[in-house]
Every structure is written in structure tokens, then in C-alpha cells.
Write a structure and sequence with these properties.
The chain is mainly α. The protein has one domain: Ferritin, CATH 1.20.1260.10. The protein has five helices and no strands. α1 runs antiparallel to α2, α1 packs antiparallel against α4 and α4 packs antiparallel against α5. The radius of gyration is 17 Å and the shape is elongated. The chain starts with a helix and ends with a helix.
């Protein structure tokens, strides 16, 4: 039988995997970028995803999964946290516009996931880690939305 702690360990491990995928996503998008400014931003985002992964790994080592306030697996499942960790695939044929839209969706989902985790931990330090990650993902989303507007809606 799966415990609450194991359920959260699976979620945090999946978040680590998503941070790795985000890093690869941004590295690949940077390589295919036609604009230097876009390439620089995408490389910067890739580097930040590595930092996010390290923060999550550190939180796991410090027992973050023991500090969540849910009392049962059913209570965890009711939060539907894994909805935020869905993989939004990138096709080799994806256009720059599609890449940005996917990136914005990924960052928005990550923001929501970390916000939700911050609300169910009883440990102030861990709450702070998740709140920080949520804010950073929101900043990423805003930067990507700005890039999208600059490139695809310059006259607005």
C-alpha cells in the first residue's frame, strides 16, 4: 500500500524529471532559435531549470515529503497535483511560435504545482522553497510571454 510520503516522493521525483525535461527543451529551443536575444533567454531559462532541479533534490534529501499535511493518499489525490506535471510534447516540426506557447504552458503548470505544494507543507523552510520555485516559474512565464509578444505581436 502506498503511503502519503511515498505519494509525495513520487510527485517531487516527477517534478525533478519535468525540470530535467524543461532544461533539455530550452537547450534544444535555443539551438534552433533564429534570434540572438531569444537564444540567450532560452539558455538562461535552461540554466535556471537545473537550479530548480537541485532545489527539489535538496528538499527531498531534507525530508520534505515528511512535512506535507495531507493525512491520506486519497487526500493527496484529491489535490490532483499530477495534473500540473503533464508532459506537453514538442514535435521536431514545431514552429517557433508553437515552441513558445508550449514553454509558456509548461511554466504556468510548474508555477501552479509549486504553489499547491507550498500550501500543503507544514515546514516553513520547505514552504519557502516551493514559493520561491513558484515565483521563478511565474517570472519564466512572463519572460516567455514578453518574447512571444515581441516576436509574434509586435504592433500591439
Amino acid at each position: 500500500m502506498t503511503t502519503v510520503q511515498q505519494t509525495f516522493e513520487q510527485l517531487v521525483s516527477l517534478a525533478i524529471q519535468r525540470e530535467e525535461e524543461a532544461h533539455e527543451f530550452y537547450v534544444k529551443a535555443a539551438k534552433n532559435s533564429e534570434l540572438k536575444a531569444s537564444e540567450k533567454l532560452l539558455k538562461d531559462l535552461a540554466n535556471q531549470e537545473v537550479i530548480h532541479k537541485k532545489k527539489l533534490q535538496e528538499a527531498l534529501k531534507k525530508g520534505v515529503c515528511e512535512t506535507f499535511t495531507c493525512r491520506s493518499v486519497a487526500e493527496v489525490e484529491k489535490l490532483d497535483l499530477d495534473q500540473y506535471l503533464v508532459d506537453i510534447p514538442l514535435r521536431p516540426s514545431s514552429s517557433p511560435q508553437e515552441i513558445l506557447v508550449i514553454a509558456i504552458k509548461r511554466e504556468s503548470a510548474a508555477n501552479s504545482f509549486y504553489k499547491a505544494l507550498s500550501e500543503v507543507t507544514s515546514n516553513a523552510n520547505h514552504r519557502s522553497v516551493f514559493e520561491t520555485l513558484a515565483k521563478e516559474e511565474d517570472v519564466h512565464k512572463t519572460r516567455l510571454q514578453d518574447m512571444y509578444d515581441d516576436i509574434f505581436q509586435p504592433d500591439m
